Amino acid sequence: ARAKEADAKARAEEAKASEAEAVARENEARAQEDEAKARENEARAAQDELQAALNELHAQEAAYKAKVDDLTRRGNDESVGVVTRNKAKAELAQVLAEDPLPLRKAKITQEAAVKK
After folding, report:
1. How many CA atoms lie within 13 A of 24 on its CB side?
2. Region 65-70 average pLDDT
3. Which tens digits make up the pLDDT trace of 37-65?
4. Do the Cβ atoms of 71 and 91 come closer than 8 Å?
């Protein structure tokens, strides 16, 4: 009877140890899940920030194109005076003479970052 009782106590101790180990593994898994969710949220926030920057870049590009189109239209409009046409042509020349490299570089960089 004592041998059975000792055997039962040993199995009970094993069960408690196994339960404690399972609880520890569960807690570790929860911690890893929380860490993964945090990294996912950071990545999502970075993606949103990059997308917003890309949208802003496209807006700047559209504004540049609209300005060029407007100045071209005013420079070729025969219904306005010579001074107005020549002023529009001079402004257009200035806009076109500006270096668009920063805009192009930013566009390429942003699009590449969003694709990552």
Report:
1. 6
2. 93
3. 999 999 898 888 888 888 888 888 888 89
4. yes
**Angle of CA points 82, 85, 89, to nearest 5°:** 135
Cβ atoms of 81 and 25 closer than 8 Å? no
Going from the C-alpha of 73 to that of each of 59, 89, 92, 115, the distances in angstroms are 21, 9, 10, 37
Whether the per-residue pLDDT at 109 is higher than 80: the answer is no
| CA 96 distance to own-chain centroid | 31
Show the tokens assigned to 69. 């189109």
Cα-trace Rg, the chain: 34
Ramachandran bin of 80, using left for φ above 0, alpha for ψ from -120 to 50, beta for the remaining angles: beta
- The model's pTM is 0.58
| CB neighbour list of residue 54: distance below 8 Å, 6 or more residues apart | 110, 111, 114
